[in-house]
Amino acid sequence: PDMEFVEDKKGKSKQGVGLLPFRVIEGDVEFLIGEVTNIFHAMPDEEPDEGFKGKWTCFKGKIDKGEDAKTAARREFKEESTFSWEGELDDSMIVENNNVKVWLIDSGEFDPSRFDRNNVNKITGEYLKGEPEIWSIGWFSSTEAQNKLAKNQKDLIPQAMEKINKNPLEEAKKEITKLRIFDFDETIAFTSATTY
């Protein structure tokens, strides 16, 4: 990914865009994020200093010329997580700051054990050139994810939790009860069904 935001000719920051999957297990929310490849991945014989912490990121990057934001977000997600997302991107589920904008997607189907590092986009800069941009991925609780994420992404998790906790209430307000009439051999039965 393009880990830092870039500036246009007028000096205005451009956001990276991407997807942030979440899942709810027994009432606990977890987020899927990626570990950024570092020098110790590239040089496994080198030992990191005690207390060394790797960088983790949402799956995100720059919008290419001619792309819209949602297309770029899907592409970046696939390039970095090796998974595809063809589902809806709901604008009411966007979390963002000056550096990044991501769509929250409710999807627990992504299995980190199926992550294929060989298919991750490769680093093109001189530093770690040719290495995968993302080394590993994992599901983490909101607290763990916020602790692991890069400083310029930590504030996305509280925003995400607010959106996720609010969304079921919004859906409940949209319940529609319909009257259905079924005709069985001249006998009419009335039933009420709730759709979500």
Our measurement of the CA-to-CA distance between the termini, rounded to an integer number of angstroms, reads 37 Å
* DSSP summary, beta strand count: 11
How large is the count of helical segments? 4
- Give the overall shape, derived from the CA principal axes: globular
Radius of gyration, taken over Cα atoms and rounded to an integer in Å: 21 Å
Mean pLDDT: 84
Class derived from helix and strand content: alpha+beta
Helix and strand pattern? EEEEHEEHEEEHHEE
Poorly predicted runs are 1-13, 176-184, 186-192
Helix content range: 10-25%
Sheet bearing the most strands, described?
7 strands, mixed
Strand content: 25-35%
Describe the structure.
With 196 residues, this protein is an alpha+beta fold. Helix content is 21%, strand content 33%. The protein has helices at residues 39-42, 69-81, 142-148, 156-173; strands at 6-7, 13-14, 16-25, 28-36, 56-57, 59-61, 94-96, 100-106, 134-141, 176-184, 187-195. Strands 3, 4, 5, 6, 7, 8 and 9 form a seven-stranded mixed β-sheet that branches. Strands 1-2 form a two-stranded antiparallel ribbon. Strands 10-11 form a two-stranded antiparallel ribbon. Helix 3 runs antiparallel to helix 4. It is globular, with a radius of gyration of 21 Å. The protein starts with 5 loop residues before the first strand and ends with a strand. 24% of the residues are buried. Residues 1-13, 176-184 and 186-192 have low confidence and may be disordered.
